[in-house]
């Protein structure tokens, strides 16, 4: 699975933020973000909040003045940086620019080996890849044009915008819940999670090679071994997706997909290294599952 542990977030002139920066490497795996409305709070509360010295009475008062201060907008920074869209899909590009500044929006996110910087007014999108977190011209992998770069980002993440907000982001109103989606959207999410289109491409490529080059199988051994190796590397992803489907199996739309996923999971669980014969056996199962989802 792709590493989606976010390490750094920054936004300038985005939604309610003129400038906010969070270095998440300074915290643990679970980060509690709290806020305070300085226009509605007593100065003593603000001082004790800043010093981290709130008592029980302060905590009760803080709950009354912590709504609408931008806590949920932190998640919007991540989603907008990655996809150029917000969690609340009704918001357009003009809506996310700070209403008082009106220009020079900039959001930045670092996760795993990647750094993404997206701007509006003027529009721009840049990406870097570096295991050492060296962000310079040598590590920049931005492609020609924002659409091509956006497609590359989604390939690196392995999730579409719709799938990301339904499986990674959980808001307080749960509007992005998988269970709240219509049937076509659920199918799209499941297909995206399982990367079924990729498996279909692997199967078609294997069939094409078999039909076109029966007399030169030996010369294709290297290509086939690379293909089998690539399929074998998906074992951990299949396991994770199987666990996700198992959690959602109570939903009537997911239950049939979960049952058909079981023999595919068994094939990957019982196989350390795929052979051409095993790929030929599991490919029809994957293709049938894909067709059931998209039909």
Short description:
Helices cover 48% and strands 12% of the residues. It is an alpha+beta fold and 295 residues long.
Which features characterize this protein?
globular, five-stranded antiparallel sheet, Rossmann fold, 295 residues, 2 domains, 5 strands, alpha+beta
Structure report:
The protein has 2 domains: 6-33 and 71-157, Rossmann fold, CATH 3.40.50; 178-294, no CATH class. 48% of the residues lie in helices and 12% in strands. It contains 12 helices and 5 strands. It has helices at residues 43-51, 56-64, 73-83, 93-96, 146-157, 161-167, 183-194, 196-212, 221-232, 235-248, 255-269, 276-294, and strands at residues 6-14, 17-23, 105-111, 114-120, 124-129. A hairpin with a 2-residue loop joins strand 3 (105-111) and strand 4 (114-120). Helix 11 packs antiparallel against helix 12. The longest helix is centred in the C-terminal third of the chain and has 19 residues, at 276-294. It starts with 5 loop residues before the first strand and ends with a helix.
Count the beta strands. Answer: 5
Strand order of the largest sheet: 2-1-3-4-5
Mean pLDDT: 75
Largest sheet: 5 strands, antiparallel
Number of helices: 12
Task: Give the N-terminus to C-terminus distance in angstroms.
Answer: 27 Å
Which segments are poorly predicted (pLDDT under 50) over 5 or more consecutive residues? none
Structure classification:
alpha+beta
What order do the SSEs take from the amino end to the carboxyl end, as H and E?
EEHHHHEEEHHHHHHHH
Strand content: 5-15%
What is the share of helical residues? 40-55%
Compute the number of structural domains. Answer: 2
Radius of gyration from the alpha-carbon trace, in angstroms: 23 Å
Name the overall outline: globular
